[in-house]
Design goal:
Layout lengths: L7 E6 L5 E7 L17 E4 L2 E6 L4 E4 L7 E7 L17 E6 L9 E7 L6 E8 L15 E3 L12 E2 L35 E4 L6 E9 L1
Parallel strand pairs: 1-13, 8-11
Antiparallel strand pairs: 1-5, 2-4, 2-6, 3-4, 6-7, 7-8, 8-12, 9-10, 9-13
Length: about 220
Amino acid sequence: MPTNSQTVLELTNATDQDVQVYITLDATPGCIQNVADLTFVTNSVNNLQGWFTLAPNGLVSYIPPEGVGVNGNFAFGTLPINCPTDAFPNGVNLAEFILNNSFQGLGAQETIDISAVAGVNCYIQFSMSGGGAWNAGATEPNVTEFENKSLNDNCGQVGVYPYGCDDCTRRVVPPECTGPPPPPPYGNCQSAPICNVQRDASTAGGTVSITFMGFA
């Protein structure tokens, strides 16, 4: 199998305020499994979690070593949480990604999305350039950017899992939250399976840029 170009993961703060960014890695074989490998992470919670402060209009980027993937998520202002808190009454959304995973073999896909399953505390935008084309299924064959909206306004948004919709078009095992504070009522799920944006991992390359647009 030929060596693939590596996809660059880029994170930008589009606001005029510092933002505390938390990264959680998934312990996926073949992917980095220690936040110490990410030079921009300044504080470790454990091997798989860490955080850093991203300055106004700041940018960090990462390219894993050739043949190594990266699987994880970014959360803003807090570690990922499953239920609302007093500080985050509408919960927290995540920017999720698995990139450079062609080592997983035939059929492997690079995949990106915004998960609002546990709520929304901020606005996140993805934009993609270079490498193979990204899609969100047959109805969305060429996706170049996507973003989330407020808590119950993500139905119809490509690349977004709406609030409580852990299977994109339905609720299977959503977070069980009783409060306090009481969780906001759920809205609608997607009518089509457009939550994951993906491409064949053999077409890796270019840049996946995640932009923090501000708190909701």
